[in-house]
Amino acid sequence: MATISSSIFNLSRVQNAVFTIESERVISYFLTSFNLPGLSIGTVPLANPFKEHVEPGGTLSYEELSVECLVSENFDNWKASVDWLQTASTGFTFPATNEGKTVRRSGSIVLLTNNGNRFGDIGIINMFPTNISSIDFDMQNSEPVPLTFSMTLQFESYKVNFDTNAEI
After folding, report:
1. 44 in any annotated domain
2. In angstroms, rounded to a whole number, what is the distance separating the alpha carbons of residues 68 and 85?
3. Which residue among 30, 51, 55, 111 is the one 20 to 30 A from 75 at the CA level?
4. Sign (positive or negative) of CA dihedral 116, 122, 126, 130
């Protein structure tokens, strides 16, 4: 039976994650939650005279990326997200060209330890938003509650990188 050394296995959890999107200017989002999307390759059924069996499929597919973000004080990150989503759609008209519009963007989710040190990142390639949630304003809360919104994104691929030398 394998043993796990306490010196290499740290049970501390991620305290902060920052989502950045590359564009004309860098847009940053402090995340309250996100999912690391699942992926699958599917299967291909193959038959021979004795038995049907399956082989690994050749197409890699990813689940959607969902992030929940804190709204910045002047709503910059929410406004930038809405503008990005609207870039893909011009409403009720069909555009003659799509010149100058950047619908797909790359970015990353930077993972921080509870000490604020970077220990990893998830690089996301060619993503675009498919949904931005509403922002709920509740004026009856006795304690201040930060405003948040959720964003759902489709993407081409992602790569997870962990810094093995990071101070945790």
Report:
1. no
2. 16
3. 111
4. negative
Residue 127 and residue 107 in contact, taking contact as beta carbons nearer than 8 Å: yes
Residue 46 covered by a domain: no
Question: What type of residue is 119?
Answer: F
Enter the pTM of the model. Answer: 0.77
Instruction: Report how far apart, in Å, the C-alpha atoms of 102 and of each of 13, 24, 91, 92 are.
Output: 35, 10, 17, 20
Q: Record the tokens describing residue 100, joined without a space.
A: 């100058």
Tokens of 113: 């330890």
pLDDT tens for residues 87-96?
Answer: 877 655 555 5
Q: State whether residue 80 is helix, strand or coil.
A: helix
CATH number reported for the structural domain that contains residue 120 in this entry: 2.30.110.20
> Looking at residue 81, what DSSP letter applies?
H
CB 126 within 8 A of CB 40: no
DSSP code at position 88: T
| C-beta of residue 69 within 8 angstroms of C-beta of residue 19 | yes
108-145 tens-digit pLDDT: 999 988 778 888 999 999 999 999 999 999 888 888 88
CA atoms within 13 Å, Cβ hemisphere of 127? 30
For residue 60, what are the CA distances in angstroms to 39, 105, 164? Answer: 7, 20, 28
